[in-house]
# Entry
Amino acid sequence: MSQNINLTEPIMIGPRVLCLTAVVWFWAATTPFIYAQGKSASKPFDLIEWNGGKLIYGVDYYPEHWDESQWEKDAAMMQAAGFNFVRLAEFAWVKMEPAEGKFDFTWLDRALKVLNAHGIKAVLGTPTASPPAWLYAKYPDIAAMDERGIRYRYGSRRNYCLHSPNFISATRRIVTAMAEHYKEHPGALGWQIDNELGNPQCYDSYCLSAFQRWCRAKYTTLDTLNKSWGTIFWGHTYHAWSEIPLTWNTLFNTHNPSLALDHRRFNSEAMRDYLKLQVDILRRIAPKQAITHNDMGMYNGVDYYQLNEPLDFVAWDNYPMFGEDYAHYFGPGLAHDLMRGSKNNQNFMVMEQEGGLPGWSTFRGRQAAPGLYRAWAFQALAHGADGVCYFRWRTSRFGTEQYWQGILDQDSFPNARYQSVSQTGKEFAQLADLLKGSKVVSSVALLVSPDSRWGFEIQPLVKDFNYNRQLGLYYAAFRRAGVNVDVVFPQSDFSGYKTIVAPSLFIVDKTLVEKLTNFVKAGGTLVLSYRSGVKDENNIVTDQTLPGPLAALAGIAIHDFDPHTNQQQEVADLEGERHPARVWFDILDLTSGEGKSRALATYANGYYAGKPAVSIHTNGKGHVLYVGTEFLKPNFYSKLVSWLDGKLAEFGYGSTRIGKKLVAEPPPEGVEVAMREKGEKEIYFLINYTENAQTVSMGRSLRNALTGNTEPAKVEIPMFDVKILMVP
Ligand code: GAL
# Structure
């Protein structure tokens, strides 16, 4: 389940945790289904090739939930809708291993046979997210322990300990048996590992010892650890590795922030190691099959750049209506782009695309118009997906997810959602050749720093601080201007971008500062925002003048700041417009820093009225903007984009560029424009998420890829509809 972004409210992490739970693997095809392990960066994995030349289009299917007499009817209905793909078995451990070491794949073989006969191939889920009751009964220590030292009881799912030797050996057994059984199966394209890796964090003695070993491997000596964590504070100095705690329950629930950051890194790496354990088994036994995992978009429990490294391609679970208004397409858009960025912009797929109203004990959100199920599938393609698989084929009659709608309801009636996805199925079939080999290319990137996100989770500044909201504010402003945006991570290649926006880059190390400096000196524009450069990689505050190691680059000094509580603050920009500001006010000093920087906006109220809030500094061939606050309304961010897009030069502040704009005029609210490129060919996706027809000014007439007709320069898009246009 993804966490999409509401641009005005903080994101709720709780429900996600509660209820839902590069370096690249390359295609080395001489024949369509041979994949080779390797780290050469020559050829990214081609999902369309993998799926026999078709865009992946499918559903998550649970044959074990239905009487076998239903399977044939289901497969026929799937085929009629244009589905060529299913994900199977990711919660069926007990059915495949009903007793320890006794395996039964006959039912899955039969299901695959029925589906394959209808042209539908499968990804098989390794079922480790839901271990059988007999496994818990026999090995109670496989259950995770919460921070109070209480083991979770059997029930729910994902409540396992990643360091329990019994769980690891059970994992090896089931994954090995599945791989042996399906390694040559022509209808099994590959594997999804586990399901939505991320929680829980386990606090048992296995995890405690593993964390202590992790610390020892990282710091080598206790002296180094004590200095790196500043453990002299409150006298928390450790004299033995075995004294090091986890972030378990303490009075006031507080921990050394350096320890807390390392604990988050440790947990993220533990997920990656667990995934890698399964990857290694599958690679060894079933080298012809591809491997993925279903990530969770904006979810922050794991560093996706690291997690996705051993996989062939990224897949993720996208639920746009989870607390969202459907016209806010930016949330899913950003999540798609982040997912693509987590594997160096390689094309990806959606493994669970919302197929109906979500809900567990209550329904969540409101019913989406049927056309949106089609719009979301095209949105995924627009952002670089080569496949979409809906969750789920049919709503369950039993269990926790009776309210979580699939495409069909329990009665299997071919409802409006089915009609909508059937139309999409025909269109996907038409577009495969055009899209094969095409990708998203952007000149603007947003830098996501997992360390900074974690740092803010540990010490969130003020109640109203929200890292993802800031990402969303900048992201949406570029998209409103009709500009493609990539997401980069600290390890990504920054060259090739004209602008990088790094909101609240709280935690930086030397390597990142050097990379950003080189990017700017070579002519790039870097936008930083408040509370950047505050901490080092140990989550310890710098002793340099803020923004610390970024001060020289930004050409400013910050000697004073003001957290927002109930004071009214406004910022007046260089064009005289006032913008209400929130969260945090960094008061910029342009005179005591490196110098040469200039104010683009100043605070309007309080004792620091007239002092700079936003600055620009020319550095080498490039520029650094520092935005010392956050704005309540999108207006400032749109203005910033227009400044970067040539206006700053007009005002005499140096030349900044944002690169290609996809439209002649910004699209109307609720309409998204995005583009994929294939050599000289440009493929535009115009998606109308509103209940009214909308017009987009493309500035030239373009050919409609679905109808073959030429569309006028002002393209009309009916409500909830999609147009795919191309040049030439
Ligand atoms: C996802 C999960 C699915 C299903 C869905 C609806 O997070 O991967 O297995 O549970 O949510 O709750």
Notes: The pocket of beta-D-galactopyranose is lined by residues 1, 20, 195-196, 317, 352, 391, 401, 404 (CB under 6 Å). The CA atoms of residues 222 and 239 lie 7 Å apart.
